[in-house]
């Protein structure tokens, strides 16, 4: 049963999600990126927070999703095929009908998610032989390798990149359309994770985080749970990558594999909100994105300084994240029962 506070939170987010673009039409794409950030942070926390495997390579699936979607959207409906489309270097501007564009887009998003899932399963067979900082570094190396490999493939434009099919509708509706996709995908991911964390899956991955060796000794198939967790994250990252590629309208190495920005942002957002919680990544993503957009607008030369200060304050004063701090400060708001005798003993000790 969903608690009253949770219902109020869902209601507020739903109202903002529905009426945000209506009330702030000039910021529709910015709010769309907000939901994208929520999705990135929530899926990163599957491994990084719930399971204790800090991944720096989830951006690999984001970039793979972009390119897979582009291949599907173009090769299925362009008579010349992918090779001719990219070799033209922008000299041709093929037009897709409304049906071709939207069918290609929806199919491209699905294929991007499935392909990213398969990639995660392939690499997880040896990546999960690493633990701790070795896994983090190894996953980062995977993202860097994927980015460098992409620029050697002329089939997808190489270092020159590739233009995505043009949106056939009105330019005003374009922002709203992609906003809806980002919002709906973030909702699906959130409620899927909410359900998963309430099942045996949630207990198993938390056991892996607490002590993986003991979890294995208890008979928990840790590798399978780790593969499932990374696979879910990969699927949603591939899907949102496909949407982001179409939102950008152009794909190259820097757009598809933004390791210094989105690759780090998703980790920072979870640390800010609180690792290992359902709402921590959501809260962290919202606060981080709002501050990021504000500093990018009003403190253009100091935006990285501002974000750096946020991380320093977070690490020094809120190591458990905002959700962890709130749960400690106001446990009754989260349904946490505190033993009054222990509480009194701690107060006397102070």
In short:
This protein has helices at about 5-25, 30-50, 60-75, 80-85, 100-125, 135-150, 170-195, 200-210, 210-215, 220-250, 255, 260-275, 280-300, 305-315, 320-330, 340-350; strands spanning about 160-165, 250. The protein is mostly helical and about 350 residues long. It has a domain at about 30-260.
Question: Could you walk me through the main structural features you see in this protein, from its secondary elements to its overall organization?
Answer:
The chain is mainly alpha-helical and 350 residues long. The mean pLDDT is 88. The protein is 72% helix and 1% strand. Strands 1-2 form a two-stranded antiparallel ribbon. The chain has a domain of 228 residues. 39% of the residues are buried.
Distinctive features:
globular; two-stranded antiparallel ribbon; 350 residues; 16 helices; mainly alpha; 72% helix; single chain
Contiguous helical run count = 16
Which sheet architecture does the biggest sheet show?
2 strands, antiparallel
Name the overall outline: globular
Q: How many E-type strands?
A: 2
Q: What is the H/E string?
A: HHHHHHEHHHHEHHHHHH
Average pLDDT value? 88
> What is the helical fraction, as a range of percent?
over 70%
Name the strands of the widest sheet in spatial order. 1-2
Q: Low-confidence parts lasting 5 or more residues at pLDDT below 50?
A: none
Give the radius of gyration.
21 Å
CA distance, first residue to last residue: 38 Å
Derived from helix and strand composition plus strand pairing, the structural class reads mainly alpha
Residues in β-strands, percent: under 5%
